[in-house]
Specification:
- The chain is about 30% helix and about 25% strand.
- It folds into three domains: about 1-100, Rossmann fold, CATH 3.40.50; about 105-175, no CATH class; about 175-220, no CATH class.
- The relative contact order is 0.10.
- The strands form three sheets. A five-stranded mixed sheet has the order 3-2-1-4-5, with helices on both faces. The protein has a three-stranded parallel sheet with strand order 6-7-8, with no helix packed on it.
- It is of the alpha/beta class and about 220 residues long.
């Protein structure tokens, strides 16, 4: 029997913010369909009455269809989507290379921006007047001041809009890094690595990140 609880689809859900989003929704009583390439092998989550897992790349239409079909079959509805670009959608997946979401007729109560590649005004165009915008990602920026211009533009812009604008900033410590190291060594956490570069090609690694399309972490290897 379909549950009356709201159902959320979360892609890129095996680690980091995606995994945190899944856990947060579960803690609040939502039904969740969690997806990543190998989420069943990641040991991050175990299926339950309120959680189902779907393996595969969200870039493949067959996988997207399977996620939607799974949500409807198990929970009876789809109420929201948190995709791996950090944007909440109430409709099926949007191809950002073919459609400009800031020009759509849709309006959202919450936007979680992990890419940081659109201006605040662009994003708020599709956020409801009393909605919330969460800035969780910043582009690398220039060689001297990095992402500071983006940070300041969002901060100053937030003073003149009706929407609530907040920043999501991770706090790290040596203890946190040691804990992550232990998880990785115990095969309980698997980082997603997009590309590896030798130290001699560190310039290429930086440019790859600045292009804004890495599908995982960019690693610079140092010979020991």
């Amino acid at each position: 029997m379909a549950s009356k609880q709201k159902t959320i689809i979360v892609t890129g859900a095996s680690q980091g913010i995606g995994a945190g989003a899944v856990q947060s929704f579960l803690d609040r009583g939502y039904n969740v369909v969690a997806n990543s390439r190998n989420i069943r092998k990641s040991d991050t989550f175990t299926e339950s009455d309120h959680l189902t897992l779907v393996d595969g790349s969200i870039g493949e239409s067959a996988v997207a269809s399977k996620i939607v079909e799974t949500a409807v079959r198990k929970f009876g509805s789809i109420d929201a989507l948190v995709n791996n670009a950090g944007i909440f959608f109430t409709k099926p997946f949007t191809d950002y290379t073919a459609e400009d979401f800031t020009r759509s007729a849709e309006r959202y109560d919450l936007m979680f921006d992990l890419a940081g590649n659109r201006s605040l005004s662009d994003c708020l165009r599709v956020v409801t007047p009393k909605g919330m915008f969460i800035a969780g990602g910043m582009r690398p920026g220039g060689p001297w001041i990095g992402p500071l211009p983006r940070l300041l533009s969002v901060l100053v812009g937030s003073w003149f809009v009706s929407q609530k604008v907040v920043f999501f900033i991770a706090k790290s410590s040596v203890e946190d890094l040691d804990f992550l190291k232990e998880l990785i060594e115990a095969n309980k956490l698997t980082p997603v690595i997009d590309r590896c570069y030798p130290l001699s090609e560190v310039r290429k690694a930086v440019w790859h990140i600045k292009e804004g399309h890495p599908r995982g972490k960019t690693v610079v290897t140092v010979a020991g």
